[in-house]
Design a protein that fits this description.
Two copies of one chain form a homodimer. Chain A is mostly helical. Chain A has helices spanning 2-7, 9-13, 16-23, 25-38, 45-55, 61-72, 79-102, 113-117, 119-140, 143-166, 174-199, 204-228, 232-236, 243-247, 252-260, 263-274, 282-292, 295-313, 321-334, and strands at 106-107, 110-111. The longest helix of chain A is centred in the middle third of the chain and has 26 residues, at 174-199. The radius of gyration of chain A is 20 Å and the shape is globular. Chain A starts with a helix and ends with a helix. Chains A and B meet through α7, α9 and α10 of A and α7, α9 and α10 of B. Chains A, B: Its cofactor is Mg(2+). Chains A, B: InterPro entries: Isoprenoid_synthase_dom_sf, Polyprenyl_synt, Polyprenyl_synt_CS.
Chain lengths: 338, 338
């Protein structure tokens, strides 16, 4: 067995996202330096808290998309690095506020910033990072970029408020859920890609193509994230499962299982997701009902639909290693372990 | 008596701030329309919550300063109206987040937005208003304005975090307190005034003059606000007194009373402000100690110092009704009922 697993270690260890990241690795190192430099403040708690969440890591998916999009557009300057840092600042600010709003204690398996530093500091440092993002955009000096990212920020907030309005409502429609995830997740993916074309001075058609790629990739990403929260395989891998269930967060797997369920099942969903009356075994029952109605499988199918649109969006770009990597990331996002 | 009070109703009913507001009243009506129009969103909770806090009113002091500053610079266009709306959006966003951070139930005697709509919605709608402010600045299209207001927003957040760091620390120095209020209050006053010169295309010296006017007016304003929170006269007028005391918020009256007090008095301040162990009569004792050490009187004296700087900052502008009104507002801010 040891021989077999060693035969092709690359196959086992790198993902298409790693490959895409490798293509922009020099730029990404520069972005990480920019992030560290610009989250500095004489008020110590700011770099402390921001450093905590930035170091906690994540995949830097959004800045990688900005760098890759600029690369796809043949950009040869350095402004895309600052824009990638800006995108990560906006993302980090929304994470900080999300965790306060969701009352989360954990993020990526670590104590969340609000759990360590308190809600107050998380709100204010989020505001700081958000303001700093705009300061950095002004340094780059493109009103088009400012327009795209200020619009994206407003749309993200709208998506989050919409999620608050629909929270714990089992009758949420698939369309309403889609509006939520377009705002809270996909819009920043879309804007991150679009500014890559803007910084390269490419024509509107390429801007739109990259926006559409990011938007549909972002929708697929969030759909699969929502599946993973109920995935038996995730549980086997030791990852947290059931966070959305415990919060009564209405995601597409719940929307589908509720709509396809009988009266008794709907009563279960109302009790657990609306009234948040949950007992031992309820998460397992939820997973069972989702399996019965193919709710997870069909959510992944929906993700494939958006993935296909993302794929076609890149059609007008010539073949290139970065394009191939961006296409492979679509499938990777959809076929993550679930 | 009735005859006497009726002799000069204007004298009794209008303040210098009313007079300044009257000078820009047409513009201010337009600003109010812009505010209502641009806080619109298809996500209903956003205009509901934003409308609640915007309608709750306040004096629109900051937008009035933008309009007056543009007027002082002889501006004849309409972009100052949008910038005044932007300034009010940023102010409103920080109020929403402040109330969450301070866990306030009341604002200006009414239930605060977070008390009515919840902390979550307040955080997210604050984010929305903040993003919308940047969208509107992009519409105006001045990178200088964007630079000033993105910087101001970051400084505000720094001031708020600094306040969090020094909260409940009775050994806070006057200098540290000053840094807090410069950030959390005075920077937006300063930026609001400065963009009036920028939109009018005036030379740097006038920009700086208006920035200094706003900065020092803002410091004086906050100092007097902090005095009013302990003022016996405020209590007689039926206004809330003692909010800062109950929160253990360290303001200059406390800093001075603590430094000028004996060991037994310092123990009192530590118990009430650091440990937040407060009993009936403690607020009265705090007021008594402040009176013994002239802490309120001297805080007002400090405010006069900053007011004097604000006055001289306007020296290079020619005499005009709007200039006179801006100068009178300084004294008014300092001599509000305390």
């Amino acid at each position: 067995m040891a021989v077999v697993t060693n035969l092709d270690p690359k196959r086992r260890k790198t993902t298409p996202l790693d490959d895409l990241t490798a293509l922009v690795s020099d730029d990404l190192s520069a972005v990480n330096e920019l992030i560290l430099r610009h989250m500095h403040s004489p008020v110590e708690l700011i770099p402390q808290l921001a450093g905590y969440i930035v170091a906690a890591g994540g995949k830097r998916l959004r800045p990688v998309l900005t760098l890759a999009s600029a690369g796809l557009c043949g950009y040869r300057g350095e402004n895309h690095r600052m824009l990638a840092a800006v995108v990560e600042f906006i993302h980090t600010a929304t994470l900080l506020h999300d965790d306060v709003v969701d009352e989360s204690d954990l993020r990526r398996g670590l104590a969340s910033a609000n759990a360590v530093f308190g809600n107050k500091a998380s709100v204010l440092v989020g505001d700081f990072l958000f303001s700093r993002a705009f300061e950095l955009m002004v340094e780059v000096g493109s009103l088009d970029v400012l327009r795209i990212l200020s619009r994206a920020s407003a749309v993200i907030a709208e998506g989050e408020v919409l999620q608050l309005q629909t929270s714990n409502d089992t009758e949420t429609s698939e369309q309403a859920y889609l509006e939520v995830i377009k705002g809270k997740t996909a819009e920043l993916f879309a804007a991150a890609c679009r500014v890559g074309a803007v910084v390269a001075g490419r024509p509107p058609a390429e801007e739109v193509a990259l926006y559409d790629y990011g938007m549909n990739l972002g929708i697929a990403f969030q759909l699969v994230d929502d599946v993973l929260d109920y995935s038996a395989k995730q549980a086997k891998l030791g990852k947290t499962v059931g966070d959305d269930f415990r919060e009564g967060k209405i995601t597409l797997p719940v929307v589908l299982a509720f709509r396809r369920g009988n009266d008794e099942e709907r009563a279960f969903w109302r009790r657990t997701m609306e009234d948040l009356e949950q007992a031992d075994g309820d998460l397992e029952r939820a997973q069972h009902l989702m399996a019965r109605h193919d709710a997870l499988r069909d959510t992944v199918e929906r993700a494939r639909h958006y993935g296909a649109i993302a794929r076609d969006a890149l059609g007008l770009f010539a073949d290139a290693p970065v394009k191939r990597a961006m296409l492979e990331v679509i499938d990777f996002v959809i076929d993550r372990d679930y």
